[in-house]
Design brief:
binds fe (iii) ion; 46% helix
Length: 294
């Protein structure tokens, strides 16, 4: 078995490319077929075509993202005592994350953030929505602290209750320690029916981290986008509805409104960072001025 600190993905983008293969169109469910046999067949096709690196990434993610693991990471990283940086500094810091991907076809982290935000801007959305697009992946700086890929990216899911079989590569949960703990492996696990997502621990990664960095300073709609943008089992598959309250359900419309900008705006046309910088500096100044704690 590969060590848990292995980095199977050539780049973090490989996870997002895989998401696009699984969800080729905005707003469509994972498997459109309603016939369960056809569904299984489509899943087999997806699983067969998934890259070995992506499969290994999910194996690690599903094996090690346990309830205890998530609690420990939250207790550590959510002290936000690692760095003091402005949002722009954090974006430049994240841009140090260069991986093995082909430099001709792949975008830097900053370019992905700008492409996402610029598409939101072009569609005439409010300024806080544009800013949410710009900062949504800043939590990936976790990688630069030495965290393994499987603890930074990947579809997120609740821990502390039964793992849904609609989570991609759910078979890998058989190696997760929580699966043999009856208290954690029941439908509700440690939660109450309809308790609301704020009370639920999702698998640890870049979403939860950036949410905590900005949580007192941005509109709630933006906070939902940031905190749940990787929660594909929830916002795309409709799983775990029994943990949501009515407020979550309403707010998830915003998470779903954000998703297409994250997943489908990547193009080879590289945004001009220097030209766009003044607009984004203003936007940062409006909502998130000064140095923040990371
Ligand atoms: Fe993300
Ligand atoms: Fe993203």
């Amino acid at each position: 078995m590969t060590a848990p600190n292995a980095q199977p993905l050539a780049s973090l983008d490989e996870w997002e490319d895989d998401l696009k293969a699984r969800y080729p169109e905005a707003g469509t469910p994972q498997f459109k077929a309603t016939d369960p046999e056809k569904k299984k067949e489509e899943f087999r096709n997806y699983a067969k075509n998934a890259r070995p690196s992506v499969r290994e990434f999910y194996r690690l993610n599903h094996t090690y993202q346990s309830h205890d693991f998530v609690r420990a990471k939250k207790a550590d990283f959510l002290k936000l005592n690692r760095r003091r940086m402005t949002v722009w500094e954090a974006a430049e810091f994240l841009n140090n994350l260069v991986d093995d991907s082909d430099p001709d076809t792949d975008l830097s982290q900053l370019q992905h953030l700008l492409q996402t935000a610029e598409h939101i801007r072009r569609d005439g959305h409010p300024r806080w929505f544009i800013l949410a697009g710009f900062i949504h992946d800043l939590g990936k700086i976790l990688c630069l602290y030495g965290e393994p890929q499987w603890a930074v990216v990947g579809d997120t899911f609740p821990v502390g209750c039964k793992f849904s079989d609609k989570i991609v590569f759910s078979e890998f949960f058989s190696a997760n320690p929580d699966i043999s703990n009856p208290k954690l492996n029941s439908r509700l696990g440690v939660y109450e029916e309809g308790c609301g997502l704020d009370k639920v621990d999702l698998s640890w990664g870049h979403d939860e981290y950036i949410y905590h960095v900005v949580k007192d300073r941005m509109p709630e709609e933006a906070l939902y986008m940031l905190r749940y943008h990787s929660f594909y089992p929830g916002h795309r598959e409709g799983e775990y509805d029994y943990l949501l309250n009515d407020h979550d359900r309403k707010m998830f419309d915003w998470v779903r409104a954000f998703n297409p900008y994250d997943l489908y705006t990547k193009s080879h046309e590289k945004p001009d960072v220097e030209k766009l910088k003044p607009f984004y500096m203003d936007l940062i100044e409006e909502y998130l001025p000064g140095k923040l704690s990371w």
